[in-house]
Design a protein that fits this description.
492 residues; Cytochrome p450; five-stranded mixed sheet
């Protein structure tokens, strides 16, 4: 009787309102935070905090309001943002076995398929990480041959800079040089800077990284099933990555044609051998598709961050010529002009080493790292973090923590020098993140940055172009990169 009365009493508009109220209640119940969950801005019903820009500057502002551990919701997915050196250290090192999986981020899951090295989790990730670390030790970081490869690439890079006539943007040339180091490790070869096909692959990849940080591309994460059919930057990313993976499949196909298991040349050859060894262990997920994604991981992680760091380095040198002069004086004193820089020189060049570290700190290239996921219920800074919650560590807040750095918002190489002018390590220097999900190629990146940077400043002095004043404000891509700028150079 009561239901019949209610049915007769409600008109069409009332039924719509009732339906909406019921949906709202369902949304509130479904997304209700557990007890002692980190606080955060009020989410919009059904959409969450989708209108909150997911960049490090916004995260810094929110941390000022809600504290170093706060939460956001995108659609129905909750995430926790961790800021400040001590809190990030607790998350990445104090609970080293807790935040090691990767959450499902639709934009990246569609591309990287939660396989390979960066996006995988659990047993397949552990096996791929172990294999990749072993390869880097065998073919890369532990061998003098890799240093020789970087030194040779430094020659090509300096020659390319010398050939420039007038002001030029260094992005493409730096990207070509850095990518060739990874190309040698993965494909066993480098590519000429004028190889149009390879240059197009690099351009496509750079465009993807630039688009990945845009708010319109991030909207894909809210409703991927809808945005799959709508135009936008995500469609450009998907098309670009299809072309890049076609290139990678072609390289893998060529390797399989003349593969000699007894004489591995590079990462692909080693992976093909590992595939045969792991045939009895399908859960390890060693297959061609995972190889394609693993190669994509290494190309992206190994190229973009180092290229962007070097761009920041050149920008800071033209903005702070007095620092450039001190670096060049140390290079002249320790190395001179008659030979190339080598890694052994670093210990005798504390000022140059300090400048490179400050470039990484102040450049803030990967400000939010890559999200992780809690594999079990845990506590962080007094808050309850349920299993499956996505965690983003604000590395920018670590590199600019006022409690850890004397002048956090100033480019200051003295952050890494003691009173005697000797290089000093800083615990809060975490551009590569920390813990089990820290950057695999950290040692390779350190080698590249030192050799490329010192080689360039050994050969050239850099200055801003007449009538131009490049900005120190960067652009927020997936990384944090300098706005396009041109340089002028003169031989030393």
């Amino acid at each position: 009787m009561i239901l019949h009365f209610i049915y007769d009493s409600l008109d069409y508009k009332s039924w719509i309102i009732l339906f909406f109220v019921l949906l709202l209640l369902a949304d509130m119940i479904k997304n209700k935070n557990p007890f002692n969950f980190p606080p955060g801005p009020w989410p919009v019903p059904f959409l969450g905090n989708v209108f909150t820009e997911m960049d490090f500057k916004t995260m810094d502002k929110l941390a000022e309001v809600y504290g170093n551990v706060f939460s956001l919701r995108v659609g129905s997915e909750k995430m926790v943002i961790v800021s400040g050196y001590k809190t990030v250290k607790e998350a990445l090192l104090g609970q080293i076995d807790c935040f090691v999986d990767r959450p499902n981020i639709p934009l990246f899951s569609k591309i990287f398929k939660k396989i390979g090295i960066i996006s995988s989790s659990g047993y397949p990730w552990r096996m791929h990480r172990k294999f990749t670390v072993s390869h880097l030790r065998t073919f890369g970081e532990g061998k003098k041959s890799l240093e020789l490869s970087v030194q040779q690439e430094c020659v090509y890079l300096c020659d390319a800079f010398k050939a420039e006539k007038g002001p030029f943007d260094p992005l493409v040339t730096l990207n070509s040089a850095v990518s060739n180091i990874i190309a040698c490790l993965i494909f066993g070869q480098r590519f000429d800077y004028h190889d149009e096909y390879y240059q197009n692959i690099l351009r496509l990849d750079t465009e993807c990284i630039k688009l990945a940080g845009s708010p319109r591309a991030q909207l894909y994460n809210v409703w991927p099933s809808l945005f799959d059919y709508l135009p936008g930057p995500h469609q450009t990313m998907f098309a670009n990555y299809n072309k890049i993976t076609d290139f990678l499949r072609g390289e893998i196909r060529k390797h399989r044609e003349d593969w000699d298991p007894s004489n591995p040349r590079d990462y692909i050859d080693n992976y093909l051998s590992e595939m045969e060894m792991k045939e009895s262990d399908p859960e390890a997920n060693f297959n061609i598709e995972s190889l394609v994604v693993a190669c994509l991981d290494l190309v992206e992680a190994g190229t973009e961050s180092s290229t962007t760091t070097l761009r920041w380095g050149l920008l800071y040198m033209i903005k702070f010529p007095e620092i450039q002069e001190k670096v060049q004086a140390e290079i002249n004193s320790v190395i001179g002009l008659s030979r190339q820089p080598c890694l052994a020189d670093k210990d005798n060049m504390p000022y140059t080493d300090a400048v490179i570290h400050e470039i990484q700190r102040f450049g803030n290239v990967v400000p939010l790292g890559f999200p992780k996921q809690a594999i079990k219920d845990t506590m962080l800074a007094g808050y309850f973090i349920p299993k499956g919650t996505s965690i983003t560590t604000n590395l920018s807040s670590v590199l600019h923590d006022p409690h850890e750095w004397e002048t956090p918002d100033t480019f200051n190489p003295k952050h890494f020098l003691d009173e005697q002018g000797r290089f000093r390590k800083r615990d809060a220097f975490q551009p590569f993140s920390a813990g089990k999900r820290a950057c695999l190629g950290e040692q390779l990146a350190r080698m590249e940055l030192f050799l490329f940077f010192t080689s360039l400043l050994q050969r050239f002095s850099f200055s801003k172009c007449p009538g131009e004043e490049p900005s120190l404000d960067g652009e927020i891509w997936f990384t944090y990169a300098p706005a396009p700028f041109c340089i002028c150079l003169s031989p030393v």
